[in-house]
Design brief:
The chain is mainly alpha-helical. Helices cover 89% and strands 0% of the residues. It has four helices and no strands.
Length: 107
């Protein structure tokens, strides 16, 4: 968060509001992170089953892909919402710079 303050020359009020926005999202981010980890573990189990037994449960793979797609969409929405709400705290010049920095790190 300090890099954000110095890079964009945020006022104390802006910095406090942005810090609160991040804090308000912490629970959601942790929940999404746990779900990502759980899906990664499921995929590892499916792959181990394939390698060990030569068995592929295509229904389980379909369910995994469906869950992953839904979770990916939730992660993108959460990130986009946070970026937008943080941008709303900034003036036009700060927002342009912020979106430029965030966009380069997302890609």
């Amino acid at each position: 968060m300090e890099w954000l303050r110095s890079e964009l020359d945020l006022s104390e009020e802006q910095f406090a509001r942005i810090t609160r926005l991040h804090g308000d999202r912490e629970r959601e981010i942790r929940t999404l992170s746990r779900k990502v980890r759980d899906l990664e573990l499921l995929l590892a189990e499916l792959e181990a089953e394939r390698v060990t037994n030569g068995y592929v449960d295509y229904l389980e793979i379909r369910n995994y892909l469906k869950a992953k797609r839904k979770l990916d969409e939730a992660c993108v929405k959460s990130t986009s919402d946070l970026i937008a709400s943080v941008g709303d705290v900034m003036n036009v010049d700060q927002r342009k710079r912020y979106f430029s920095i965030v966009q380069s790190r997302i890609n």
